[in-house]
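Handoff note, outgoing to incoming analyst
You'll be picking up this chain. Sequence as last confirmed:
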Amino acid sequence: MIFKNLEIKNFRNFENIEVPLDNKNVIFGMNDIGKTNFLYAMRFLLDRDIRKNGFVKTDYHKNNTDNDISILLELDISDFDESEDTKSLVSEAAGVRSSRNAEKFYIKIVGEYNKKELIGEPILLWGDDKENLYQMDSRGYAFSIDNIFKVIYINPLVDLEKLFLKNKRLLMDESSSSDDDKKIIEEINELTDNVNKKIGEMKIIDNLQTEITTEYNDLRNENIEIQMKSEMAIKGFFSDIVPYIKKKDDENYYPTSGDGRRKILSYSILNLLVKKLYEDKIVVYLIEEPENSLHRSMQLALSHQIFSNKAYEYCFISTHSSDILYELDNAMLLRIYSTDKVECSTHLYKINESFTKDKKKLNREFCNALFSERVLLIEGPSEKVLFEKVMNEINKEYELDGGYILQVNGTYFKTYFEAFKGLNIDIIVKTDNDLKIKKGSTDEYELLGINRCLKLIGDKQQPNIKMNFTSNVKKTKLRELKVKRKALYTEKKSLVDKFEQNKIFLSELDLENDLFNVIGDRLSEILVIDRKKVVEKLQSSKLYMMVDVVEDLDNGDCKKIYNSKYFKCLKRLNDE
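Most recent structure output, in case you need it:
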């Protein structure tokens, strides 16, 4: 079973949206944009505990109760032969399916506002024909769908004590006690009786009982007496059981203090409850901002659980943290944005198998940039060092203003570009006009830089070129390749212009030559070398040399770079 699509109409801040889903969904965006409301749409649909309260006026978009609330979930059930969850759903919904559409199934909730009762009564429908759904059977607030789905909602401030207290008896089911356990329980009860007898023999307790009894009978003479007893004796010894931390090779017990540890323990208890109580149901986790109160190491550990653990097979998670997404793979990213008209964009993020070994690196860079409005994709560390210096001189708050510089290598350009584009994040690209020799050849070259840009905009690749070198001497060949690259940049001017229209900026040659064209004399002064040797020096040890150069660049140098035609990408990053 696959969560395929969700339509929300007239619900809270969602006027009318439709978004693709998957079984793992990550919801992100600015504060107060609608992430919690999105989770509540799922809760109204699948969670009886929320649904039973009905829809109130403020649940309707802009309080418009003339239009119904409508939340429609589309499921892909084409995996009937392999999925037990799909079989459970199909079995429960046997009477509302036809043979015409065996691969899709819909669940819908409608809230028609009753102005006399001041409430929107939830009506649930389902079936495989989107336009002709059947009204679902119900008993009070329980609908047929509640026999199949169980929602586990975890809020950012999950309370360990309340969670454990509420579910203590479920976690420790006395009815399943073994014979040995029953004998131990009898022994504990005897010990408890003895404890209470000893407590009653204490003079301080006896005096207190007498004094309280006297005061009570003075107020109301009922011929009774007050006795002090251990709670263990009255409520049972399970009532006093609470979780403690015990470290290995340490005989001491430590209270579960610390918000991070308490939160992880809460997740553990919830997972255990699911295993004990809901094995026969399709469990859907709705997790809101789990990073709250968690140290980075705990966020990484939780990320591994969410994206690797079978228990979280169906999961919706809202977050502001890139660390929660550290293990991200095979998940639908759902970005909610725009304060005046709420919109959503989605992208199914799945790492190509050939990149598996670089998964963490890909995720770390990608997830840090996810929470930005504009992302500048660059090739390597030299660009990053230079561009960060320039941007900090021009606008120190460029990241606060929504900008982000993301270093990739040529292999990952397409991966990042498609992801950000799918999420409607503004993408800017700066890349070199590289040529790459064809494997096994000595004179045939691929237009690597130009074709990289063409691939990003979905255009046809340019054919390889042949080089007629005048000499086999390496320096001569490099010089002639440089001339050819410049010539290609001029020849392909229409393509270069098209790239720039798509915010993709191709260097005439490369970063070092671009920089030289803008501040060549200044570079010669900083490096203390002849002007003719500047580019060669910069390229001899790229990152090391760039770090040295950047240290000596002043505000005037940075302004020249920023305002140059060679670095238009920086103005785009600054939203100019």
